[in-house]
Structure formats: structure tokens, C-alpha cells
């Protein structure tokens, strides 16, 4: 397995600006023997994301007990799968993406989709885990559907994708405890059960409030042309201990470039790659997450179908509906906690705030609006596209 891993990292991954070699060095520095692996992470990337076992730390050792072939949802934690919602300005309520009226989508043809991560707001329980694990990562990609039946321009093209992997770190002083933390955290588990709240380190202290992290700037947004308005997305976030992990070594190197105190640090953003290269990128992210052990999920999902045109819904009826506007993604286990707020809030500047709130209120209002809910807000842009070499 070790030789397979080294071959994978030093082969196809090295073409990604030498990141394969960098990751190999980071692992060597962090390891003091057999690498500690995060339970379930290898299974998720292998079973749900379809990464070959020999490309993953520990993947070859677990391959024999996996009867399924190809990606499946069985390796995911349903409680931490993302649920996407958008604010409907006409009805003045939050709606789940499946409730977006077909008439409100681009009618037909190709669609240019832009995806910008705006904010991450964690409830007190998840913020406590974030502080105690000391860092985290967010990965998102957009991918075109397979084009076996494509016509015209797209018929000669390999499916393309765009991906972004970034790190997030707690703000200074976020771990201070107090009465406000205990009050805010009360009931934050939203029903208990597997995945209802991220596990935290023993003896840890709670943040004084829900924690917000600014994410991508507008010029860091991902953009991809979707032939016939159909595509896929993978969306996940985790918190991780930096000690004795390749992720920690990797992050430290980038922090020297980004400057101390930056809460959001882009690590690997690729505007347009082929589907084969996307698999290499996912393998790199998987090994960074798995190596060193200690980590916990904020959100996780296998690749999801997305649809950006009314016509594409007929072919992919269960696809995530995308139209221009602001979305939030929440863990499904937090849905019950959000339900009472659905017709009382809106999305403003990437935050959930009361419907009557203005930009002047957003900073204070988001901390007390749906405090039991963790979410990542996303700005989505969709416009009709035309299949042409310059379209991307």
C-alpha cells in the first residue's frame, strides 16, 4: 500500500504544481510510525466519492470488505449531509431547493453556473469543536455530466470540472467560555443521535457565541458551463486537529504566505480541469483529511446532481435546483432546529437574519438568529450559456 500511495502522489499528483511531492514531505514530517487515520474518512472517499483504494491511506487494506463498486451513499453520515435552502423573495420564506418553481429556472440550453462560498456560521456546539480541533477544511467542486450523448461542440469534449479546497481557522479568542456559551449551547444538538453534534475534545471550553468565518471573495468564485444545464457537485466541510498531521504541515506552509490570523486560506483552487484530474485532486484532499486521525464532520455529501434549467429537471428530477440568488447549506440533523424560523428570516450578506433586518443589523442579528443551526452560505449565479470555445 505504501508503494502504491507513493506512486500515486509522485505520479499524477505531481503535475498539480508539485503538490504530490509536498504532501509526501508533509506526511513524512508528521509520521512517527504507522500513520494514524481518521475513522470513516477513508471509507467515505472510497465508497461515496469513488476514489480508488490504492490512492488512499489505508484504502488498500479496507478494499476487501467493500462489496459495492463505484460511489454510493452508504458511507455517508445522513445527519451531516447538506440540505440546501434559498430565500424566496416572493413568498418571503426560506424554501428547500426542491421547492424552487421550475418556472424560475433558466428555460433550456446550456447554463453558466457561478458558485461562491460566502460565510460559515457555526452553532455553539460546532464552534466549540472547531476551536478545539484548531482548524478545518472546506472542499467543493462542480462537474459537468458525462457527455456520451452530447451533440455538436460538447460531443468532442472531456467532461470538465472546477474545484476549490480551503482551510479555515478559529478567530483569536473564540474559545473563551462564559454564561452566554452555556445558554446558547443548550439544546444545540437538535434532537441528538448520530451526527447531531460534532464531537469535541475532552476538557474543552465553549466559544461565547456562534462563530462566523468569511469565505471566498467574489474573484475566488468557481464558474463552469453546464451542457444542457446538468452537472454534479461535491460539498463537504470538516474540523481537524493540526498536530502530527499532513494537513497541519500543509496549512502552516500556506499560513506563512497568507499571513498570521487569516481565518480563510485557499489551499488548492483549480478553475478548470478534466474529470481525470479532478479524481487526483479529490485523492489529495482525502489523504490530507484522513492523515493524523483526529477530525470531525461539519457537512459531507457524495456527488450530488445539479440542474440549472427547466428542461434538465425532466431528465434529473431529483437534482439540486440552482437559480441566481443566495443559498444556505445546513446539516440535515439541524433541519428541525431551523424549521420554526423558515418564514421569519432571510439571507442577508451571507447570514440568516430576521426579515426586517437591514445591513446595519446583520453583524449582531446573525448571532441570535437560529442559533442552534450551523450553515454555510453560498452565492449562486446562473445565466444562459452558449456552447463555444470561449464560453468557459
Topology (SSEs and partners):
Elements: H1 2-10, H2 19-30, H3 41-48, H4 59-62, E1 82-88, E2 93-96, E3 110-122, H5 124-133, E4 134-144, E5 160-168, H6 179-185, E6 211-214, E7 222-226, E8 230-241, H7 246-258, E9 264-274, H8 275-290, E10 295-299, E11 304-307, H9 310-315, E12 320-321, E13 325-331, H10 335-338, E14 345-348, E15 351-354, H11 362-368, E16 375-385
- Content-based structural category: alpha+beta
Broad shape: globular
Low-pLDDT residue intervals, each spanning 5 or more residues = 1-15, 64-70, 175-208, 388-392
The CA-CA distance between the termini, in Å, is 38 Å
Helix content percent band: 10-25%
Largest sheet: 7 strands, antiparallel
- Count up the helices: 11
State Rg.
21 Å
Mean pLDDT: 80
Helix-strand pattern: HHHHEEEHEEHEEEHEHEEHEEHEEHE
Query: Strand portion, in percent?
Result: 25-35%
Give the total of domains. Answer: 1
Number of strands: 16
Describe the model.
- By secondary structure, the chain is α+β, with helices and mostly antiparallel strands.
- It has one domain.
- The chain is built from eleven helices and 16 strands.
- The strands form three sheets. Strands 1, 2, 3, 6, 7, 13 and 16 form a seven-stranded antiparallel β-sheet that branches. Strands 4, 5, 8, 9, 10, 11 and 12 form a seven-stranded mixed β-sheet that branches. Strands 14-15 form a two-stranded antiparallel ribbon.
- Strand 1 (82-88) and strand 2 form a beta hairpin.
- The longest helix is centred in the C-terminal third of the chain and has 16 residues, at 275-290.
- Residues 1-15, 64-70, 175-208 and 388-392 have low confidence and may be disordered.
Amino acid at each position: 500500500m505504501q508503494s502504491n500511495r507513493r506512486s500515486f502522489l509522485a505520479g499524477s499528483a505531481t503535475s498539480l504544481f508539485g503538490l504530490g511531492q509536498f504532501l509526501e514531505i508533509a506526511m513524512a514530517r508528521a509520521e512517527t510510525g504507522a500513520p494514524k487515520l481518521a475513522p470513516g474518512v477513508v471509507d467515505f472517499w472510497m465508497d461515496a466519492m469513488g476514489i480508488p483504494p490504492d490512492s488512499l491511506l489505508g484504502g488498500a487494506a479496507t478494499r476487501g470488505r467493500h462489496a459495492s463498486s463505484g460511489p454510493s451513499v452508504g458511507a455517508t453520515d445522513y445527519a451531516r449531509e447538506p440540505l440546501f435552502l434559498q430565500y424566496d423573495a416572493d413568498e418571503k420564506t426560506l424554501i428547500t431547493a426542491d421547492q424552487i418553481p421550475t418556472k424560475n429556472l433558466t428555460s433550456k440550453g446550456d447554463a453558466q453556473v457561478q458558485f461562491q462560498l460566502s460565510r460559515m456560521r457555526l452553532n455553539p456546539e460546532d464552534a466549540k469543536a472547531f476551536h478545539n480541533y484548531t482548524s478545518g477544511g472546506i472542499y467543493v467542486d462542480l462537474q459537468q455530466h458525462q457527455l456520451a450523448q452530447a451533440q455538436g461542440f460538447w460531443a468532442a469534449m472531456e467532461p470538465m470540472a472546477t474545484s476549490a479546497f480551503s482551510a479555515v481557522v478559529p478567530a483569536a479568542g473564540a474559545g473563551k467560555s462564559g454564561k452566554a456559551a452555556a445558554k446558547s449551547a443548550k439544546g444545540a444538538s437538535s434532537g441528538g443521535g448520530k451526527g447531531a453534534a460534532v464531537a469535541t475534545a475532552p476538557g474543552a471550553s465553549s466559544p461565547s457565541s456562534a462563530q462566523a468565518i468569511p469565505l471566498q471573495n467574489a474573484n475566488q468564485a468557481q464558474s463552469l458551463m453546464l451542457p444542457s444545464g446538468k452537472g454534479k457537485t461535491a460539498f463537504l466541510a470538516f474540523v481537524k486537529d493540526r498536530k502530527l498531521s499532513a494537513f497541519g504541515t500543509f496549512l502552516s506552509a500556506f499560513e506563512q504566505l497568507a499571513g498570521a490570523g487569516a481565518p480563510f486560506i485557499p489551499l488548492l483552487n483549480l478553475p478548470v480541469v478534466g474529470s481525470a484530474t479532478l479524481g487526483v485532486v479529490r485523492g489529495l484532499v482525502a489523504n490530507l483529511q484522513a492523515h493524523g486521525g483526529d477530525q470531525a464532520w461539519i457537512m459531507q455529501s457524495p456527488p450530488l446532481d445539479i440542474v440549472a434549467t427547466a428542461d434538465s429537471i425532466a431528465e434529473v428530477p431529483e437534482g439540486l435546483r440552482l437559480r441566481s440568488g443566495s443559498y444556505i447549506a445546513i446539516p440535515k440533523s439541524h433541519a428541525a432546529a431551523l424549521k420554526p424560523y423558515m418564514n421569519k428570516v432571510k439571507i442577508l450578506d451571507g447570514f440568516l437574519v430576521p426579515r426586517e433586518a437591514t445591513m446595519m443589523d446583520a453583524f449582531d442579528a446573525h448571532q441570535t438568529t437560529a442559533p442552534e443551526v450551523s450553515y454555510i452560505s453560498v452565492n449562486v449565479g446562473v445565466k444562459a450559456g452558449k456552447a463555444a470555445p470561449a464560453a468557459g
